[in-house]
Structure formats: C-alpha cells, structure tokens
Amino acid sequence: MRLGYMTNAFGPLVGAGAGVTSVKDIRYLTMCDDGETMKTIRNIGFEYIEVLDGNLTKYAENIDELKAMMKNANVQMMSVCIGANFIYKDALEDEMEHVEEVCKAAKEVGVTYLVICGGAIRKGGIRPGDTKLLAEGIDEAEKIAKKYGLIACFHPHLGSIAERPKEIDELLSYSNIKVCPDVAHLAAGGYDPQKFIEKYYDRIALIHLKDLNSEGFAPLGKGKIDLKGVIAYVKSRGYEGDWLVEVDGYAGDAREACEISYEYLKNNLL
C-alpha cells in the first residue's frame, strides 16, 4: 500500500495556452513551484505524488530536471492525471498524440497509473451515443498506456459526461477499463461512493480520497462523506492497492489541508 498526495492543490489550475488553437496541446497545468510543492508534501509525510499532465510534460524535453527535483524532495511519482474531450472523432487522433507524449514521459519517471478524466458535454447537453464515444476514446488511451507499461484507470469527474450515476454505469458497461473512484466527485455527482466501490470493486486500480462539505471539497474528516465506511469496506475485501489524496478546489490553506489529511490517514488507515 502506497499513500500519495496530488500537487494540484498547491496552485491555480489552468490550461496550456497552445491548446486553445491546437487540440494536441490541450493539457491541465497547476501553477505552482513543482519542487517546493514536492518537498512540502514529503515533509508532511507522503512519499508519493500525483501530478497533472502539464506538470509532467513541461519537462518532456529535459526529463532529468524532473528526476533531480523528485530525488531532491525524496518523492516518487505514483500517477499522472490527464483529461480529454474524447467524443469528437476528428480530434481524437490529436488527443491520442498527447496521451502518447504523457505516457512516454510517465514511463521515464516511474509512474504506475494513468488516471483518465473527461468526456465533453456539448452545448445542448449529452447526446445519445456520446457515452459510447467516450468509452471508445478511453479504450484507445488505455491501449497507449499499456504500450508504456502503465495502468490506465478512469476517474468519474464533475463537469464531464461521467458525472452522474446513469452515465457512469453506462460508460462502464461499454468499456472494461479499470477505475479510479474519487469518493468526493462521486458523492457530488449523486453516486454513493461506497455503492460504486462495492459494484466495481474488482475493477479498482487506485482510490482517490477527499472529503465534501457544503462549501465544496475538503480535507479528510472535515466533510460529510463516510470515509471510515469506505476504508473499512475495502479493507474487508483485502484491498492492498494504493491511495491518493486530492483536496483540489479547497478555499483554505493547501499545506494545512495536506497536514489534516495525513493525520486522518494515520489514525484511520495506517
């Protein structure tokens, strides 16, 4: 069992500017000092990190700089999160070009998981067939991940096709990809996290933990999600996989959220 923390809580989330005009250049990017963020997370107690795709590929031409940064902070990169539209057939080739770039860099720094989010919602809403198009797109991404020795897993996410229970279940009936349940995103979208985990337990690759309260995402133990129930259930099933804490979009102090979450895990998971 490994414990990781997502670096994206330590700065504003943006998209790379080139992606405005070129689909192949669309990516997430956290505006933070990557090296200092790694050190902060490690000093609190987490030995592993997850980053957004842009915070990995910006070092693609100088991967040794990133490796040195990780070594200096004494952390390892467990996973990288990537998003795409997936449903626009004429753009899919360029989106897969980006997936390939991410997977290549991820392999070079020892990443285990490619965490996939996405599925664009059209102006008029989700059309019949969009969920199947999303499934076909993520299956293509999974093929690329396998080529580089990565475990691809799908992360149901707010603001995407895979937000609500109906679409999530429909998607996962079309694709056999492994899953990365994020308990707070599931809850906010109306899917009981424990019911999802029970239903798809055999497909879980990695679990994302965060809490949820009336103000939004929150540090572990500071919201309404039955985290103890989720932990107890997966332990009862013999889960020996990895855990990743992500407190993105939190209005409070990022370091404090990381500290609170680590203390929660010390008392309830370790």
TrEMBL record:
<keyword id="KW-0255">Endonuclease</keyword>
<dbReference type="InterPro" id="IPR050312">
    <property type="entry name" value="IolE/XylAMocC-like"/>
</dbReference>
<dbReference type="InterPro" id="IPR013022">
    <property type="entry name" value="Xyl_isomerase-like_TIM-brl"/>
</dbReference>
<dbReference type="GO" id="GO:0004519">
    <property type="term" value="F:endonuclease activity"/>
</dbReference>
<protein>
    <submittedName>
        <fullName>AP endonuclease, family 2</fullName>
    </submittedName>
</protein>
<keyword id="KW-0175">Coiled coil</keyword>
<dbReference type="InterPro" id="IPR036237">
    <property type="entry name" value="Xyl_isomerase-like_sf"/>
</dbReference>
<dbReference type="Pfam" id="PF01261">
    <property type="entry name" value="AP_endonuc_2"/>
</dbReference>
<keyword id="KW-0540">Nuclease</keyword>
<feature type="coiled-coil region">
    <location>
        <begin position="49"/>
        <end position="109"/>
    </location>
</feature>
<feature type="domain" description="Xylose isomerase-like TIM barrel">
    <location>
        <begin position="41"/>
        <end position="258"/>
    </location>
</feature>
<keyword id="KW-0378">Hydrolase</keyword>
